[in-house]
Inverse folding.
């Protein structure tokens, strides 16, 4: 007899009698507490916490990568686009979406920090996070300056 | 001095100072008073730091027999910048080489009048020494200069004289810019050392004058803010008693006008003093090492008229189209 494909579950070391789905972390505690001793429950909780932290880190990394991409794009586009096309609203919305399904409050805080950093970055490169636009240059800005031997 | 309101919000001013022509231009609310303050700062600096007026603070300092001397804030700042220049350039930019400058013949204000003849003529004239990189004066007298801003005193060995030179022009651009930093747009040109910027973040075109008197610019760059300075050996130059050419850029190691294979260097930097120091250090260090000094970008013109832009993406060679 040939065995079928392995179930898409992850077996917890020391838990031989019942497979445990890491992803089903919200339902494990009630059902398992009846058959597991407190040490095993503690271990399971620890593993679930690790998985949650990994998820948060992954999402934070995605948010950071989005920030970097937007920042680079904003610098490249600045000379070509009107300043009002680089508002913080657009970039903030994208970053917020990256963390919209977050289940952990701390992740929400991380995204908030990322938003603040992003807005500062856009302002630092001359962008307008308020969407108010920039005034036209004075006529004198068109006059060239000349440097010569001093 | 002339003052012009070029449009409703732009104020421009031109004055003769620092051995040449100084221009100030500013736009935005408060431009008028800011330009007044900038002009006053430049005039004060000129009056105190010139070495061609016996009653100037610099001349009195240089002849003072005391080791520690009371000094004005701008003099203290100049001395501090001179020490910084020595450190930054490894002694190539040495503000204590006044004896050598005067020995070379630079004893009066030359303005901006070039030596007669073209660059080709200058290069073909016999000049003391062959082409070689400059170096620091092993005595490093600039290291013996110190300032105490709290007491308002400057200390240096008696007999060590300071030359404001290019550092003074860069400093003039810096002190003027400090009066206008919160304006929408400003620019100050202190005889070729320029500071520009403003809260508007508007891009400016900067033409780089040719080392060949009368020729057009060798190129142009575009920047929104900062400083740019140019050092070279084809202006402020003269014929020495032997019939050769001499100029004001002294090689501290030899104490004679430098001949390094570089005619002119333009340097970008955050401040006028730093731009001035980097330009002069690049020129003095010679063909092979000049580019190393242009950390913030710059343009080198070699003695074969080859033009090399370093770290400036916006550089466009030749006259602007």
């Amino acid at each position: 007899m040939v065995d079928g494909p392995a179930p898409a579950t992850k077996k917890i070391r020391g838990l031989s009698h019942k497979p445990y789905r890491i992803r089903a972390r919200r339902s494990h505690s009630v059902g398992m507490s009846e058959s597991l001793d407190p040490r095993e429950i503690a271990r399971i909780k620890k593993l679930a916490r690790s998985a949650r932290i990994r998820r948060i880190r992954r999402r934070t990394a995605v948010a950071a990568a989005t920030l970097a991409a937007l920042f680079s794009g904003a610098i490249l586009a600045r000379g070509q686009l009107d300043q009002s096309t680089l508002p913080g609203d657009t970039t903030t919305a994208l970053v917020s979406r990256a963390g919209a399904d977050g289940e952990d409050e701390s992740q929400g805080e991380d995204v908030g920090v990322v938003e603040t950093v992003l807005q500062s970055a856009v302002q630092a490169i001359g962008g307008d996070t308020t969407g108010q636009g920039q005034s036209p240059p004075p006529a004198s800005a068109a006059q060239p300056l000349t440097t010569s031997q001093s | 001095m002339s003052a012009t309101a070029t449009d409703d919000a732009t104020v421009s001013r031109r004055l003769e100072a620092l051995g040449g022509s100084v221009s100030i231009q500013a736009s935005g609310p408060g431009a008028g008073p800011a330009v007044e303050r900038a002009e006053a700062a430049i005039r004060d600096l000129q009056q105190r730091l010139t070495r061609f007026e016996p009653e100037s603070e610099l001349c009195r300092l240089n002849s003072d027999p005391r080791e520690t001397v009371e000094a004005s804030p701008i003099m203290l700042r100049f001395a501090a910048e001179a020490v910084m220049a020595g450190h930054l350039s490894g002694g190539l930019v040495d503000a204590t080489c006044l004896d050598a400058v005067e020995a070379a013949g630079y004893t009066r204000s030359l303005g901006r009048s070039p030596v007669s003849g073209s660059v080709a003529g200058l290069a073909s004239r016999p000049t003391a020494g062959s082409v070689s990189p400059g170096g620091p004066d092993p005595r490093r007298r600039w290291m013996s200069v110190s300032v105490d801003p709290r007491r308002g005193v400057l200390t240096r060995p008696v007999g060590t004289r300071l030359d404001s030179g290019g550092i003074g022009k860069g400093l003039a651009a810096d002190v003027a810019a400090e009066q206008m930093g919160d304006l929408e747009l400003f620019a100050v040109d202190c005889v070729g050392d320029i500071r520009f910027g403003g809260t508007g973040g508007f891009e400016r075109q900067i033409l780089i004058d040719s080392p060949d008197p009368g020729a057009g610019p060798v190129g142009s760059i575009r920047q929104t803010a900062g400083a740019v300075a140019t050092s070279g050996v084809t202006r402020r130059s003269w014929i020495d008693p032997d019939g050769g050419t001499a100029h004001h850029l002294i090689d501290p190691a030899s104490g004679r006008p430098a001949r390094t294979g570089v005619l002119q260097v333009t340097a970008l930097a955050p401040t006028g003093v730093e731009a001035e120091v980097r330009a002069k250090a690049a020129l003095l260090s010679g063909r092979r090492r000049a580019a190393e000094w242009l950390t913030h970008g710059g343009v080198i013109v070699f003695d074969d008229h080859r033009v090399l832009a370093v770290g400036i993406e916006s550089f466009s060679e030749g006259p602007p189209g």
About this structure: The interface with chain B takes residues 126, 134-135, 137-141, 143-150 of chain A (CB under 8 Å). The CA atoms of residues 81 and 102 of chain A lie 33 Å apart. The longest strand of chain A covers residues 145-147. The two ends of chain A are 92 Å apart (CA to CA).
